[in-house]
Amino acid sequence: MTIASATSLVSLLVVLALTPMASCAGEAASWAQGHHSRARLISGVTATPGDFLAGIEIALDEGFKTYWRNPGESGLPPAFDWSGSENVARAEVLWPAPTRFEDPGGVSYGYADRVVLPVRVTLRDPAKPARLALKLDYGVCKDICIPAHAELTLAPSGRDTAPERASIEQALARGPVPKLLGAEGDLSILGLVPAQGGADRLVVTARARKGMAPRLFVEGPADWFFADAAPENVATEGEAQSGDYVVKILERPRQAPVAIELRLTLVAGARAIETSARLDTAALAR
After folding, report:
1. Count of CB atoms within 10 A of residue 243's CB?
2. What is the sign of the dihedral through the CA atoms of 121, 172, 142 and 39?
3. Cβ-Cβ contacts under 8 Å for 75 (sequence gap 6 or more)
């Protein structure tokens, strides 16, 4: 969240969403109603011994959206508190690829209509039952971002229920596939360099199949924020296209490490990849 969006959100903190408790002993909890939205926990996919997959399902009223882990220039990323859970060693949220939105408030990244965020749950003791308890804070937006809160519980029975399994698997399929920098393929990120003649821009070169029109999302460490970018200098070779994304650095700390790791997510329709790249911060000042 940028400094500008944080300022606008502070003025909205007096607006509180409903915070009921949703609970169930089956594979899908009842809905907890929030601001123009509702949320629940679902479960239905067995992973490995000691692990299973659950999901955080958020349904939104028409015209409203919620946010990805990186909300963009405005918005509020979700926050998860699993501390009330029982027999849970770890709960890792897995993110479907986001959609880009542009409105008078700026550019944001997130989900409209409905989203399921898969959760990989690791048990402390696989022989014992588990109970998930989540305090969820998330943003809901139409014209301005409003904080919402829900407290959700679910005690999975271990049964594999088809509707919930399908919802979680569909969400997993929308998640980005890890891919190395410079890897071959019809959707890949080829390189990352500081832009020539400017200390506040990067150039990310990506390749995609012709007609894909991919969108790039750039994330860095805390206190680093990056603008949205469209491809430039697009070149076509056979069925592939490559282009340069000139990404503006909106904010960065005054004192930065010599090098930082960036996470680059490239989304093209229903496909997405995620690439880690190392950035030499000293080169930004040249």
Report:
1. 19
2. negative
3. 1, 5, 67, 108, 109, 110, 139, 141, 145
**Coil/strand/helix, residue 199:** coil
Rounded CA-CA distance 181/136 in Å is 34
Question: Can you identify the CATH homologous superfamily of domain 178-285?
Answer: Immunoglobulins (2.60.40.10)
Amino acid identity, position 119: V
Q: How far is CA 54 from CA 50, 57, 151, 153, 252, in A?
A: 13, 10, 16, 11, 35
Q: What is the DSSP letter of 254?
A: S
Cα gap 181→192, rounded to integer Å? 9
Mean pLDDT by 10 residues, the chain (286 residues): 35 31 53 94 75 94 95 90 96 95 86 96 90 96 91 80 84 95 93 83 91 90 87 83 91 85 93 94 72
Provide the pLDDT for residue 46.
Answer: 67
Q: What is the pLDDT of residue 143?
A: 82
Cβ neighbours of residue 158 closer than 8 Å, sequence gap 6 or more: 46
> Token pair of 73, please?
């220039």
For 220, the token pair is: 């860095």
The amino acid at 262: L
Return the CATH number of the domain spanning residue range 3-174. 2.60.40.1250
What token pair was written down for 148?
Answer: 């919402």
The full set of domain ranges for the chain reads 3-174, 178-285
Instruction: Tell me the C-alpha distance between 106 and 75, whole Å.
Output: 9
Enter the pTM of the model: 0.84
Alpha helices by DSSP H, the chain: 3-10, 162-173
